[in-house]
Amino acid sequence: MKKHSLFAILIVTAICFTPVIYAQTGANESNHEVTTQDIQTETRELIETLQQYSVEQRDEAVNATEQMLESLDQRIDVLQRRIDNNWDEMSDEARQTTRDNMRALREQRNKLSEWYGGLKNSTDSAWDQMKAGFSDAYSSMSNAWEKAKNEYEDNDK
Predict the structure, then answer these.
(1) Distance between the two ends of the chain, CA-based, in angstroms?
(2) What is the pLDDT of residues 144-155, one digit of tens each?
(3) What's the domain count of the chain?
(4) b/e per residue, 45-67, with b = 16+ CB within 10 A?
(5) Which residue segment(s) compose the domain that 82 sits in?
(6) Is 26 left (phi over 0), alpha (psi -120 to 50) or beta?
(7) Is the pLDDT of residue 4 over 80?
(8) Is residue 48 within 8 Å of 150, Cβ to Cβ?
Protein backbone atom coordinates (compact mmCIF):
# COMPACT_ATOMS: atom_id res chain seq x y z
CA MET A 1 0.00 0.00 0.00
CA LYS A 2 2.79 2.40 0.86
CA LYS A 3 4.63 1.76 -2.40
CA HIS A 4 1.62 2.59 -4.48
CA SER A 5 0.80 5.64 -2.47
CA LEU A 6 4.37 6.78 -3.04
CA PHE A 7 4.05 6.45 -6.77
CA ALA A 8 0.61 7.98 -6.81
CA ILE A 9 1.96 11.03 -5.03
CA LEU A 10 4.84 11.07 -7.47
CA ILE A 11 2.47 11.00 -10.40
CA VAL A 12 0.34 13.81 -9.00
CA THR A 13 3.40 15.87 -8.40
CA ALA A 14 5.02 15.25 -11.74
CA ILE A 15 2.03 15.14 -14.03
CA CYS A 16 -0.43 17.33 -12.24
CA PHE A 17 1.16 20.21 -10.43
CA THR A 18 4.15 20.87 -12.64
CA PRO A 19 2.17 21.73 -15.80
CA VAL A 20 -0.21 24.01 -13.89
CA ILE A 21 2.57 25.91 -12.15
CA TYR A 22 4.71 25.97 -15.27
CA ALA A 23 1.86 27.50 -17.27
CA GLN A 24 1.39 30.21 -14.65
CA THR A 25 4.95 31.40 -15.02
CA GLY A 26 4.23 32.71 -18.50
CA ALA A 27 6.39 30.04 -20.11
CA ASN A 28 6.23 29.30 -23.82
CA GLU A 29 3.33 26.96 -24.66
CA SER A 30 5.41 24.64 -26.84
CA ASN A 31 7.96 24.24 -24.03
CA HIS A 32 5.09 23.49 -21.68
CA GLU A 33 3.87 20.66 -23.92
CA VAL A 34 7.31 19.12 -24.24
CA THR A 35 7.95 19.28 -20.51
CA THR A 36 4.58 17.78 -19.68
CA GLN A 37 5.05 15.05 -22.26
CA ASP A 38 8.51 14.22 -20.94
CA ILE A 39 7.22 13.97 -17.39
CA GLN A 40 4.28 11.80 -18.42
CA THR A 41 6.52 9.48 -20.42
CA GLU A 42 9.08 9.13 -17.63
CA THR A 43 6.39 8.54 -15.04
CA ARG A 44 4.56 5.97 -17.17
CA GLU A 45 7.81 4.11 -17.82
CA LEU A 46 8.69 4.11 -14.14
CA ILE A 47 5.26 2.79 -13.17
CA GLU A 48 5.35 0.05 -15.79
CA THR A 49 8.83 -0.96 -14.68
CA LEU A 50 7.98 -0.95 -10.98
CA GLN A 51 4.85 -3.02 -11.50
CA GLN A 52 7.09 -5.79 -12.85
CA TYR A 53 9.41 -5.88 -9.85
CA SER A 54 9.02 -8.83 -7.53
CA VAL A 55 9.83 -8.65 -3.85
CA GLU A 56 13.22 -10.13 -4.73
CA GLN A 57 13.86 -7.11 -6.93
CA ARG A 58 12.97 -4.59 -4.26
CA ASP A 59 16.44 -3.00 -4.30
CA GLU A 60 16.10 -2.29 -8.01
CA ALA A 61 12.67 -0.77 -7.43
CA VAL A 62 14.03 1.40 -4.64
CA ASN A 63 16.91 2.55 -6.85
CA ALA A 64 14.54 3.42 -9.71
CA THR A 65 12.36 5.36 -7.29
CA GLU A 66 15.35 7.20 -5.88
CA GLN A 67 16.42 8.26 -9.37
CA MET A 68 12.91 9.53 -10.13
CA LEU A 69 12.88 11.51 -6.89
CA GLU A 70 16.21 13.10 -7.77
CA SER A 71 14.85 14.02 -11.20
CA LEU A 72 11.73 15.44 -9.57
CA ASP A 73 13.82 17.55 -7.21
CA GLN A 74 15.74 18.96 -10.16
CA ARG A 75 12.49 19.79 -11.96
CA ILE A 76 11.13 21.51 -8.87
CA ASP A 77 14.30 23.60 -8.65
CA VAL A 78 14.03 24.60 -12.32
CA LEU A 79 10.37 25.41 -11.87
CA GLN A 80 11.07 27.56 -8.82
CA ARG A 81 13.70 29.51 -10.77
CA ARG A 82 11.21 30.11 -13.60
CA ILE A 83 8.64 31.33 -11.12
CA ASP A 84 11.18 33.62 -9.49
CA ASN A 85 12.22 35.01 -12.88
CA ASN A 86 8.63 35.73 -13.92
CA TRP A 87 7.27 36.83 -10.55
CA ASP A 88 7.15 40.55 -11.39
CA GLU A 89 5.06 39.91 -14.52
CA MET A 90 2.48 37.76 -12.71
CA SER A 91 -0.85 39.13 -11.51
CA ASP A 92 -1.67 39.01 -7.80
CA GLU A 93 -4.12 36.21 -8.45
CA ALA A 94 -1.58 34.20 -10.45
CA ARG A 95 0.97 34.73 -7.70
CA GLN A 96 -1.42 33.43 -5.05
CA THR A 97 -2.37 30.43 -7.17
CA THR A 98 1.29 29.73 -7.86
CA ARG A 99 2.11 29.97 -4.15
CA ASP A 100 -0.71 27.57 -3.33
CA ASN A 101 0.34 25.10 -6.01
CA MET A 102 4.00 25.25 -4.99
CA ARG A 103 2.98 24.66 -1.39
CA ALA A 104 0.94 21.64 -2.50
CA LEU A 105 3.86 20.46 -4.61
CA ARG A 106 6.21 20.65 -1.63
CA GLU A 107 3.70 18.85 0.58
CA GLN A 108 3.42 16.09 -2.00
CA ARG A 109 7.21 15.87 -2.20
CA ASN A 110 7.43 15.55 1.58
CA LYS A 111 4.87 12.76 1.47
CA LEU A 112 6.94 11.10 -1.23
CA SER A 113 9.92 11.10 1.10
CA GLU A 114 7.85 9.44 3.81
CA TRP A 115 6.51 6.78 1.45
CA TYR A 116 9.96 6.24 -0.02
CA GLY A 117 11.26 5.46 3.47
CA GLY A 118 8.41 3.00 3.93
CA LEU A 119 9.13 1.41 0.58
CA LYS A 120 12.79 0.90 1.41
CA ASN A 121 11.90 -0.76 4.70
CA SER A 122 8.81 -2.72 3.66
CA THR A 123 8.44 -6.36 4.55
CA ASP A 124 8.23 -9.10 1.97
CA SER A 125 4.61 -9.78 2.90
CA ALA A 126 3.64 -6.13 2.35
CA TRP A 127 5.09 -5.93 -1.16
CA ASP A 128 2.00 -7.17 -3.01
CA GLN A 129 -0.25 -4.97 -0.88
CA MET A 130 1.79 -1.96 -1.92
CA LYS A 131 1.38 -2.90 -5.56
CA ALA A 132 -2.38 -3.36 -5.16
CA GLY A 133 -2.78 0.00 -3.42
CA PHE A 134 -1.18 1.84 -6.29
CA SER A 135 -4.34 1.97 -8.40
CA ASP A 136 -6.32 3.59 -5.60
CA ALA A 137 -3.57 6.09 -4.92
CA TYR A 138 -3.34 6.90 -8.62
CA SER A 139 -7.06 7.67 -8.69
CA SER A 140 -6.56 10.06 -5.79
CA MET A 141 -3.74 11.74 -7.67
CA SER A 142 -5.90 12.11 -10.78
CA ASN A 143 -8.58 13.78 -8.69
CA ALA A 144 -6.01 16.18 -7.24
CA TRP A 145 -4.80 17.01 -10.75
CA GLU A 146 -8.33 17.68 -11.95
CA LYS A 147 -8.91 20.01 -9.02
CA ALA A 148 -5.67 21.91 -9.62
CA LYS A 149 -6.38 22.15 -13.35
CA ASN A 150 -9.92 23.43 -12.81
CA GLU A 151 -8.75 26.02 -10.29
CA TYR A 152 -6.09 27.24 -12.71
CA GLU A 153 -8.55 27.45 -15.61
CA ASP A 154 -11.03 29.36 -13.43
CA ASN A 155 -8.32 31.83 -12.42
CA ASP A 156 -7.15 32.19 -16.01
CA LYS A 157 -10.55 33.42 -17.26
Answers:
(1) 39
(2) 545 555 554 554
(3) 1
(4) ebbeebeebeeeebeebbebbee
(5) 2-156
(6) left
(7) no
(8) no
